[in-house]
Design goal:
With about 260 residues, the protein is α+β, with helices and mostly antiparallel strands. It has 8 helices and 9 strands. A hairpin with a 5-residue loop joins strand 3 and strand 4.
């Protein structure tokens, strides 16, 4: 049996068993993430992994195949990691940004060109790689299934500065809604920034007396640290979800175990 990849799986809500959206995952190993995305997956579900968009021409960035048929990811991983050398240091130990976006089950199958448009919209709306900004972060969008893509970016602008990632979840949602309208997919309301945060599994497991206890300013502190309110199921036609394992939610001190 092949060992479970630390990049495999999705965050799931324990009460409803559906992917939980709204968490931007951060990691430290861009090469490991690329190996997972270009690999066979947990059950050989990855088919024809290839780039659909990126900071350069996808055809030029596409990893070459070895005689064995596997992809040589060293050049692509090196290109993505190169800008990080100038920003390495304390507080910058998870500089890899990963966003996966999938179409709703009822939507049609998008072409590579349409997924490229969606990925470009997301990178533009988040401010990580705005259109026309040659100094934006380096990023690629990998497609290894018919219904979703994975965007991998390194959080270092090519002018030697750090990009801002505050509110990136909401901006991903805004870009998804723009793509839904442009591509004729099911459209959904924007994210509600005032909605209360759904209790975590640890909070739900506390005794009833403790579960209702709150700390003054806790919600404000949590949002200041970069936490995003979780959204319910089916809140977007283009849904973003993230991979667990060694990757942690931005702004939180603990990682979520794979399930």
């Amino acid at each position: 049996m092949r060992p479970r990849s630390k990049y495999a799986g999705t965050f799931r809500d324990g009460s409803q068993g559906v992917p939980v959206i709204g968490k931007v995952l951060r990691g430290s190993n861009v090469c490991g993430l690329l190996h997972y995305l270009y690999g066979p997956g947990r059950a050989n579900e990855h088919t024809d992994p290839h780039l659909v968009a990126g900071f350069g021409d996808p055809a030029e960035l596409e990893p070459e195949r070895r005689p064995s048929g596997s992809h040589d990811l060293r050049r692509l991983a090196g290109l993505l990691a190169q800008p990080l050398a100038a920003l390495a240091g304390p507080g910058y130990d998870k500089p890899v940004w990963h966003c996966a976006v999938r179409a709703a089950p009822g939507d049609r199958t998008l072409s590579d060109t349409e997924w490229a448009y969606t990925a470009t919209e997301i990178m533009h709306h988040t401010g990580l790689a705005p259109r026309g900004d040659e100094a934006g972060v380096r990023w690629v969008a990998v497609r290894h299934a018919s219904d979703h893509i994975h965007i991998v970016a390194t959080l270092a602008r090519q002018d030697g500065t750090r990009p801002r990632t505050w509110n990136d979840f909401y901006r991903v949602r805004e870009a998804s809604r723009a793509a839904e309208e442009k591509l004729g997919l099911h459209t959904t309301p924007p994210a509600d920034r005032t909605a209360p945060r759904r209790p975590s599994r640890a909070e739900r497991s506390r005794p009833s007396g403790a579960a209702g206890m709150s700390r003054p300013g806790a919600r404000c502190a949590g949002m200041s640290a970069g936490r995003r309110p979780e959204q319910g199921p089916n809140t977007s036609s283009l849904i973003s979800w993230r991979l667990p394992g060694s990757w942690s939610v931005s702004g939180t001190a603990r990682s979520t175990p794979a399930r």
